[in-house]
Amino acid sequence: MIKTQDLTKAYGNLHAINNLNLELAEGDLFGYIGPNGSGKTTTMRILATLLQPTWGEASVCGYSIYTRPKDIRRVIGYMPDFFGVYDDMKVIEYLEFFAAAYRIKGPARRKICDEVLELVDLGYKRDAFVTSLSRGMTQRLGLARVLLHDPKVLLLDEPASGLDPRARIEIRGLLKELRKMGKTIMVSSHILPELADICNKVGIIERGELLVCANVSDVMKQVRQRTLLNVAVVGEQEPAARLLEQSTLVEKVELIDGHIAVTLAEGVIDYSDLPTVLIESGHKLRLFKEDELNLETAFMALTKGITA
């Protein structure tokens, strides 16, 4: 659905994006992660045919950005980080105005506007003025606008930016629903843990360079090649730590904040013998849990160039 090959945008000696190679399949919900100025917005603007690259190729739904920009605009919905609204319009009038721009006519126009309002849970605000909407409602209205022509691909630049926690949860739920409808979605965000919950694929970009583009689980494996365990026993931790150190499954043991941090040897996946060793030695387990690596930790590691 989306493919780029050596896509580059240069401003003199500065490369906003540099040799970007990216491929998204139909139905992907792709989280595009990177610090401010890393190239996320530049990528989306090029895919939306709003910005010409310096060199390289990009296509959306098989249409080249160079030769078929009008066809691309028919199949995408692009929602920038900040977008203007017409404050003197009611919500339904705002949507009908853009539906008319998409050449949706007659009764079908009102029907589609009502449907997208229900989808984004703004049906009860259809007769309210746009200026009266909260930031979260305005974001949902913007999403409703880009859904009017039923696009196959959504390019959403920071859709949860500036939203309160409840509004972010609502946007996240809406993105899940849109993916169920078969949309291919590219979404950029700094709210990293939330992206891990909704995306099947992520890309991490820094200084215009795509550091990684893979399924979420594969990104985690790339960052951490050894399993970490958090272990705690009743009573003194040190005897249990010394016992664990003797196992061939264990590479390193540390005492941290009242529990034992165990790093398993590279390639060790099955560690079911370790709790048995502790219990048979008379220790009562209070905690035995694999340390979870979240997307935020992966981002911090990869953008520092750390891969192990």
Give a topology summary.
Elements: E1 2-11, E2 14-24, E3 29-33, H1 40-47, E4 55-60, E5 63-64, H2 69-75, E6 76-79, H3 91-101, H4 106-119, H5 135-147, E7 153-157, H6 165-180, E8 184-188, H7 192-198, E9 201-206, E10 209-215, H8 216-223, E11 228-233, H9 238-245, E12 250-256, E13 259-264, H10 273-280, E14 285-290, H11 295-302
**CATH architecture classification name of the largest domain:** 3-Layer(aba) Sandwich
List unreliable stretches of 5+ residues.
none
Look at the helices and sheets and give the structural class: alpha/beta
Total DSSP helices: 11
Give the distance, in angstroms, between the N- and C-terminal Cα atoms: 32 Å
Fourth-level CATH superfamily of the largest domain = P-loop containing nucleotide triphosphate hydrolases
Largest sheet properties: 6 strands, mixed
Major beta sheet, strand line-up: 6-7-8-3-9-10
* Structural domain tally: 2
Radius of gyration: 24 Å
- Class of the largest domain, according to the CATH hierarchy? Alpha Beta
CATH topology of the largest domain: Rossmann fold
Number of strands: 14
Q: Helix content range of the residues, please? A: 25-40%
The amount of beta strand, in percent, is 25-35%
State the shape. elongated
The topology string of helices and strands comes to EEEHEEHEHHHEHEHEEHEHEEHEH
Q: Mean pLDDT, as a whole number? A: 88
